[in-house]
């Protein structure tokens, strides 16, 4: 077929296609089956060619709106051809009556004249009165042709009266007709519908429509995820996505009776630049959506990790130092989502000025804005007023007169607990150029900023608004570099700036002690003398992400430059820089080291140096982990941090401890005894004696309680081996507990059984009792959304573990068939460290690399084949990265000191990640 023109207006396409299809239909007239087969064949041929050309032009030009309009124009041509065949060949009427009229309109997204490759085709058959036999036959013929083409067609057949009546009663139908576009048929009939819709439905109902669409938007965002900074966003329905733009236009069209966004300039709603911004956002989002549909071959709307890299390549992004192409693409996406949010706020302000929208914002749908004004001046600042209970500028020169007002506005809002008026935010966004080096170095501006950052009110809320309007990134340019920056991994759920702001919110929560999940941090926070340093450190701890060097070291360097500007002393600056540089240490040690090993504690104490720093580091670590995303923080991690803190405290205080080790074991036992009120003292004493002190210190109370009842039930049944499963819905995991006689290969067998059923281990706690039993808790990544499906999956895993431990199945054969094949979304360079300085008694082997089902089995099997005893294992995953640490000795109980043998261990473990793992025997070079 000839190449489609680059212009969007393509009337010749419909005319040519209709002419060709009619000729084919006439050649087969009277033979309906052959006619339909021939027409469908020609249309399918044309459709394939048009879609291929549309994709080629999209790749070449990068214009998403153009692609969507080309696809829509072709769809128009197809419907016109189908209508011509139905009315001219199949069901011709020589002298149609007034009842034998029909108009076909595109509605919904198709009505806008824009379609993605996988979009539905939504059409409305408009009738003058009730349905006739002729109208029913024509509509049915057209629909069957479209269905035979493989199109997903949404359709309705209504008279004009029915359209008006149903539009009054149903907002969804009203929205659909609002975007109706005439395609083919009786145009007068369509114009009658438009006129009656305007006069009988739209007129006088603007406030009702706005309220309904905003409520609909809130519900949609609640389902899709409220944050626009989720790292796997939904292009269509997510916050800042296409549906938000569509909602803006629906409201503008309904309230202001415009046909295009450009007309909103004359209405005083948008400036010309804001209309251009709307167009840029729309073009980018349509480009992403069209590429996504072409790439996946289906109407996929979610930018999941497995498509983000290919999407970045298709859209032409390249790698920069410190940032991969995919990260640059996603940063652009989130900046566009932010722009969509800004446009939403602008329209919101315009609607309020017209009294068509309730106060105070998009979420407040309770009361209508009454006529009249409620504006009061602020006594302490003539440049600001309170406008309908929100902070607004006194006039449009407020920032130009005194640029410091760009910071003072947020300070006032924080102190007075005021929301921001959209007009003030809009003016602030237009005034960002006033924030220059002079304002950044202004001591008063920095004092105001520090007051906001360290506020005891709601610092996260105010900082978030400061970030959304662009002031935060402009005032702290280092922060500006991480705005909308995503990290291409499965661990972090949010962009860097969103993560940092959530950290501030969680620190504020810790300070108020409102959430017991924060554990020891709640207890320590009141004793921290320099609380402001924690707020600064949390704001800066990831500020150097996206650079080629270690972000902790680079971040500490930035902190040393920024803190004096913020008004901190040299000593305070050094403390903040230390917290930034060491912000990962406590998490790493707690999750990846043996906390009962004296050397672990001594090494950690050497890093933190004093008790005050350790307190601050624990609070910072708690906030940092909790702000990563839902389900990342849990009772295990809280307990591990608590254990590390109390194990290190005596070292830092010269032997004195506020709560010594023995006392803490007694407290933990007393807590469990209280929870097991139905047990006798003798039963509890016998059970307590079976656990070593580390178990009592590192295991949280809920897990200890489950373990106690599980062990008692197992022994009551006379079983030597038992498993149980608990669903942790909030964390997205299933927790397996295994009780079995301990032996060197137990962990390897459990891991192998999990791999054999396709279950992926993301965390593990390994415990041994004094009477030779192993009590292991294994966290598996959840596989199903429905609890009953997940329970069935968990039962299969439990059966596999029990069969493997009793020798009923041969694991290597099963695992070889189960391991996933094909391209992986992520790549992680494997690293193996063999270290004798981390423990006095053991060699510590730390392995990190790309996680996958079966990895732990392969690693533990390899260590066993190397004749190494695993004394303890610490299993953790951070998204796609597995970090497994094994405390090992040789078969004689000695450390591995020989350089050759250490090298052999490294080579063998690296081979697991390289795909050369052999279940039967180690590589020949390792046997010696």
Automatic annotation (TrEMBL):
One Pfam family it belongs to: ACT
Domain spans labelled HD: 496-617
Matching Gene3D superfamilies: 3.30.70.260, Beta Polymerase, domain 2, cca-adding enzyme, domain 2
Residue ranges annotated for the ACT domain, each copy included: 735-812, 844-927
EC number: 2.7.7.59, 3.1.4.-
Catalysed conversion reaction: [protein-PII]-L-tyrosine + UTP = [protein-PII]-uridylyl-L-tyrosine + diphosphate; [protein-PII]-uridylyl-L-tyrosine + H2O = [protein-PII]-L-tyrosine + UMP + H(+)
Region (Uridylyltransferase), start-end ranges: 1-377
SMART domains assigned to the protein according to its UniProt record, in alphabetical order: HDc
A GO MF label: [protein-PII] uridylyltransferase activity
Regulation affecting activity: Uridylyltransferase (UTase) activity is inhibited by glutamine, while glutamine activates uridylyl-removing (UR) activity.
Cofactor(s) essential for the protein: Mg(2+)
GO biological process: regulation of nitrogen utilization
The entry's keywords: Hydrolase, Magnesium, Multifunctional enzyme, Nucleotidyltransferase, Repeat, Transferase
PROSITE patterns membership: ACT (PS51671), HD (PS51831)
Domain of life: Bacteria
Protein role: Modifies, by uridylylation and deuridylylation, the PII regulatory proteins (GlnB and homologs), in response to the nitrogen status of the cell that GlnD senses through the glutamine level. Under low glutamine levels, catalyzes the conversion of the PII proteins and UTP to PII-UMP and PPi, while under higher glutamine levels, GlnD hydrolyzes PII-UMP to PII and UMP (deuridylylation). Thus, controls uridylylation state and activity of the PII proteins, and plays an important role in the regulation of nitrogen metabolism.
Domain notes: Has four distinct domains: an N-terminal nucleotidyltransferase (NT) domain responsible for UTase activity, a central HD domain that encodes UR activity, and two C-terminal ACT domains that seem to have a role in glutamine sensing.
Family: Belongs to the GlnD family.
Entries under HAMAP family matching the protein: PII_uridylyl_transf (MF_00277)
Protein name: Bifunctional uridylyltransferase/uridylyl-removing enzyme
Species this chain originates from: Aquabacter spiritensis
Source lineage: Bacteria, Pseudomonadati, Pseudomonadota, Alphaproteobacteria, Hyphomicrobiales
